[in-house]
Model the fold of this input.
Amino acid sequence: MDILTHLLSGYLISYWASGTPLNIYVLFGTLMAVVPDVDVLLAPLERRLPLASHHGITHLFIFLIVLSTIIYILLDLFLGFSDPKLLLLMCLTGSVHVLEDFTGTGAVYLHFPFNKNQSKLNLEVGASPVLAVYSLAAIALLLAINLNIINFIDMWTASILVAAIFLANLAVRVVLKSYFARKPENRGFSALPTINPYRWRFARRTKSDWEIAVEIKTGHGLRSFVIPKKRRERFESCEDLVHTYWLPQVQSRLGIFDYPYYQIDCIGGKKEIVWRTVEMGRVMEVKAAIVDGRPEVRTEFDRSLANYLDDLSEI
Done:
């Protein structure tokens, strides 16, 4: 989920735990709710340390417990503040961040180190602009109440209302995902969210010893994309482009998604493949161009509303 939603949830939990709008509990509780997303600063380490990628080490429960403990010890040493309630609160808000990401399309290592596979629920778009706008509006409302700009509702009631709307959205998505997934025409396919809870994408993934096949329901019918498991160091022909999926620069972006698809462009001597994922549609593109047999990879984000609404009809 987006940083504003994490910020809002961290603040609400901290406020409920402490009973006051702003104090040391609220400050560090809210801080821990956004700390996991500092992994965007670890991008230069991704090629050598897989856990340095997004939703990697900073999204591990172990990391959050250790970091919360370190902060707690430092507060005791330098400020003489040592309430165990604060330690528990920081662990809680940091963990809620991971669980919120787990509900979305970006997988997390929920059971690490017992299970080193990533998992997710695919209930909400990973970075929904609708949810971000809602969180921003909710933060503005709570701030206005604290500054006595708004007096018709008290802080406690507003916080409960804000949280109830958020949870109601997830509940609706749970029901709709189950409903659409159970339809006979969707059997065998996974239902993947869009920002519109009443529209879902459908895809399935099958694996063999030599390839991964992703089938997607699109506006033009069922499309299949095959990715060989064989890795290559050099890329000469257009057929070689699908092997770029295994490049570290590509995996650092696509690794947390289950349903990648691609578009190959080899017109006029150009050799380029554009990787996307069903979970994100056209919001994120990873482009690999072959120059002198070597790949040049770049990632492009286009968070326009049209791309968030993409129903894969252009594949």
